[in-house]
């Protein structure tokens, strides 16, 4: 690990922004530029943890963003461990985890986050509304505890039919009223938390290398009585999966993270029901996309369905 700390970071920031990178120099640069343009009148520091990128990420940071605190890992430690590294360096009372494949386009975003956390001291951690570049809501920005009920209502579209009455594993747009409401977890692409919450919980579970760690951490916070909130009035663009494109990672990797989370949260109970229900849910989506002539999306859903059906219990996986 090499520390390449810049010299212009503020001494008493109000928010510490943590960005974990891996081979996404230009995407990261776009993210940081958007942050600087739309942070608002607030003092903040930016900490970048680079997971042994083989591109020019570190040199781009040194040349274009000398004020950023940079830690260059000598190996890829994964999303969870690298974010924990960054949070240990954070100086501010508020921490904002931000993916490099995000764009901060709403004016005064960090200021609005800080103001909301100030007027609602009961909130320990929070997340905002994530959108695609065209403004559509991105499913997966928050959700409920990984129970069999939550999986079922997601698989069979029940929470989509009754978004304000039934919350599933993934939150539906419009189901949380302004200015905020309680959820079990928020997406790691943009997570805000108080410094003391990190100290209390220890951060992400580092046994999750990539995917599922945000749901696990939020569910652990919720189980400990910490108020996890969703802020529907604050939006950030998330280029979902942007940091993984062209890197030969299986598209089903996120499902493995969800399966690990469900298995551990439920202590192995309901495993076969979980597998059958979620597999059937994706099979239904395959049929729907096929009928609407969206063949590529349909094949993706079929791939998910088949992958889930073949999963083995974690205690028998070896």
Throw out a few tags for this protein.
2 domains; alpha/beta; disordered N terminus; 12 strands; Spore Coat Polysaccharide Biosynthesis Protein SpsA, Chain A; two-stranded antiparallel ribbon; 318 residues; 11 helices; 19% strand
Structure characterization notes:
The chain folds into two domains: 2-243, Spore Coat Polysaccharide Biosynthesis Protein SpsA, Chain A (Alpha-Beta Complex); 253-313. Helix content is 39%, strand content 19%. The protein contains eleven helices and twelve strands. The strands form two sheets. Strands 1, 2, 3, 4, 5, 6, 7, 9, 11 and 12 form a ten-stranded mixed beta sheet that branches. It has a two-stranded antiparallel sheet with strand order 8-10. It starts with a strand and ends in an 8-residue tail after the last helix.
List the helices and strands and how they pair.
Blueprint: E1 2-3, E2 15-21, H1 25-38, E3 44-51, H2 57-64, E4 69-73, H3 79-89, E5 94-98, E6 102-103, H4 109-119, E7 123-131, E8 142-143, H5 148-155, H6 158-161, E9 181-183, E10 185-186, E11 190-194, H7 195-201, H8 213-223, E12 227-238, H9 253-265, H10 271-291, H11 295-310
Strand content: 15-25%
* Structure annotation, total helices: 11
Mean pLDDT: 91
- Terminal CA distance reads 32 Å
CATH architecture of the largest domain: Alpha-Beta Complex
CATH H-level superfamily of the largest domain: Spore Coat Polysaccharide Biosynthesis Protein SpsA, Chain A
* Helicity level: 25-40%
Low-confidence stretches: 3-7
Can you tell me the CATH topology of the largest domain? Spore Coat Polysaccharide Biosynthesis Protein SpsA, Chain A
